[in-house]
Amino acid sequence: MITAAQQSDWLLHHLSQSAGNLPGRGLAWLENLRREAARSVAQLPVLNRKQESWRYTSIDSLLQQRFITAGADIGGLENLDISRWMLPGLDAYRLVLVNGRCLPSPASSADLPEGVVLGSLRTALATDPDRLSAWFVRNSGRSDNLFTALNSALINDGALLHVGTDVVLDKPIEILHLHLGHERPLLVQPRNLLVLEPGSGVTLVERAIGADSSAAFHNHLTEIYLSAGASLDHYRLQDENQRSHHLCTLFLSQQEQSRYRGTHLSFGGVWARTDCHALLQQPGGECEINGLYTVGDEQLKDIHLRVHHAAPRCTSRERFKGILHGEGRAVFDGHIIVDRGAQGSDAQLRNDNLMLTRSAEVDTKPQLEIYADDVKCSHGTTVGEVDPAQLFYLRSRGIDKAQALSMLSLGFAAEISNGIRLNALRSYLAQRLARKLGGQTDASGMDSGNV
What we know:
The protein is of the alpha/beta class.
């Protein structure tokens, strides 16, 4: 089990190797934020099984590694051809980050509408630091645990999106987080900031992928601010290689009558965790968070949701589905909180899991914490195997077992995939799932005597 000394030593190692390469020198608010994040280590709880939110997620293998922090120099990558990693058929404005650093804006972003900023956080620290300080200082660096403290202490680069009042984009934005190989395991830490002013609207596609088989730890931290009446459709696709660890921590803050619709898709990595914190701060906010994860041999997928209804008449919907095969392991921890003053809240939380083998494992814990009396809230979870009758029906029509299981899995996932409003992404997801499940599903742990 990880001790406080081990956790502190791991963090101090990565802080010490990166201190000289950070931007924003001379910005008092930024240097103070970094210092406070580093100092918070002594007070932070140890992330071991004694912490309820980390009870089922061991970080032992992660803290046993020493990573090389991605550097500031991207000179050799400025002319990188990224076309092969773009989402086919998607007409979008684009931003590309390689190993956590933004490349110069591609031609597709040259015609952004007036009132929209899409670019590098590092560049904005040099050109518009006062605006950034107003957004960062209000949250004191987001040093909630070991990994958020590390990201805050080493703020370097990331995606910055600012959409002005009443600006509604005519096509999606695609942000590509690309990991390219390194001789030693790489620490990649983008700090992403998305701010939508009143009445604005955006569709955003984020994709985190690996270009090769090199090892890395992706420690993403994203902050999203939706002003009154703003609307964000947010798709996240995590699909790094099998030697990667991936942690995405997302903080969402919603104002009056704002709308967030998020779809989180997780397939890759040996260890992948999503921590999503949504705060409905003012009346009339709508928050919908859906997700789909697949887990196979030697994989862990961990989903943690915390949706906080702090104002009256807000609505939230959370639905996650998991497909497990081999000896894969998944964790789902969903928590909805309704404050005493949040009367008229409407919240629904659900997690469903399909077990393709009995050697797979899932720990699922949906929770409601309600302090108001005029609410409509529900939660539930299911864990089940493939219906033998459905499998028999497909087998009796000449479909082999692997293909039949893949078809049934795709049907199980359809509730999530059919909700994707971008045809290009929906088509890509169907192909990715077919590849992921077609060659890896098996029923060796299931009773196949009737098929």
